[in-house]
Amino acid sequence: MDTPNPKRPCLVPSVTSSIENASSLPIAPGFNQSNIDMTISSFLSLSDLPLFSSPLSIGCSFDRVLDKVIPSEAGTSHDEFDQDRFLDRTLQLASLLYKSTKRYIRKRATLQNSISWPLLPELTIKVFSMLDTKSLMQASACCSMFNKCAMDRVCYSHIDLTTAAKHVDNGVVCIMIHRAGRELRSLKLGSISPSAGYTTSLLTRSCLTPLTFNHGFAGGLLRSLHLYCLSMMDSKSLSPVLSACLNLTDLKIVGLLNPVEQLVSLTRSCRLLENLFIESYIAASFPTDSSLLEVVDNCPNLISLTLLRFRLNDSIAQKLIKGFRRLKYINLSSSPEINGSFLRGLGLICKDSPLETLILRNCYTLKEREVLQFLNSLLARDFKSIKLIDVSSAYGLVSDGGKRTFEPRFPIEELTKERSDVRFVAIFESQSSLLSSRTGEVYSDGTSSGSSNYSSEEGEHEEEEEGQEGQEEEEEEHGNDLE
């Protein structure tokens, strides 16, 4: 379809503005809507006549009519003005017919889909609410019926924008939160992939501000918030948001800068927090006792705690386990200062503790002797609630002589017999050594004698993968990475 001549002044409103402001347009004297409808109906029925079955014939008729209405001879300026106005009006009428036809095609397709689609709208919305955000957007683009169902607030209860992190900006987040409204329960932002880095995100510090709009209308019932590799986020931008999310129970932040300084501020408004996961971008400094006690007081209901790359010592680790009385899962991996001395009296100090999982992976100064004493206390039934201990490390363990060992001597056979309910995992990748005991399952080749050292020989790679999968399942089971 040809566009209007840019040199000719367009003296009538555009089609879009005419449609949007139809009520403001003047009505010509003697206007009869039924006559207009009849004229358009007669025009559209031309294609049914044999003499005009060919589009070329209709096109020739258009040309002849325009030649008669607009003579080729040059006239006065007033005549040219009227001719330009007539041509613009003709183009607008053609555009109106085109757009009306497209709308009817969509309406007809929607009707056909609604007849052939086996589910009621309520069930369709229920199915859409189970989709991830990316799949939901793809479904909403299929047809008008799906789009209408996908606009229901329930479909946006769990928003996950991590799969399209490179294309998500503040506007996208605002639209998603607005669509969810009071139905918003979980929100994930950022890039989970470490290779994506911190420079590709289009999000700014104010990306979560919509959660605070209208006195926390959207954030008031939010239960889970996961942020990945958003280096621009700090306590100043997060604290107001968390203050609006009074029912938040699950907070996960990966790649937080200066986490020790921000940890206290972030937990002040999270009295109902049950799962806390903070991974520092770089090794964090030592937290003070006062800040540690405030974090414990701020989160009395904490069940799962993960602090990765924090410079925690054994005294702080013991205070954390003792302070959080409901704690069932704790992960202090990649803490370079923990040597394991806090494990000595853990069974007696926390005799009634519900702690079930203890993860100390890649702790550089973790000592073999301290882990051995802890296992002996388990054999003595000092710590009855413990179910999983993981001391896997790419650095091995520190032996009595100060050297590193990748084949520590642990009482695996005794632990398997006496505490069959406990799973002990120690994977030392550099030497492909694997020690593990579990009910009816020992991750070793089973060929060792009475020695407590187990090393995999045949199929060692398969055993390592099996052990790693077991660790991931245990983390998911204890809410380390809640969905």
Automatic annotation (TrEMBL):
It comes from Cardamine amara subsp. amara. Residues 457-483 have a biased composition (Acidic residues). InterPro entries: F-box-like_dom_sf, LRR_dom_sf. Gene3D superfamilies: Ribonuclease Inhibitor. Residues 443-456 have a biased composition (Low complexity). This is F-box protein. It comes from the Eukaryota. SUPFAM superfamilies: F-box domain, RNI-like. PANTHER family: F-BOX DOMAIN-CONTAINING PROTEIN (PTHR16134:SF73), F-BOX/TPR REPEAT PROTEIN POF3 (PTHR16134). Residues 436-483 are annotated as: Disordered.
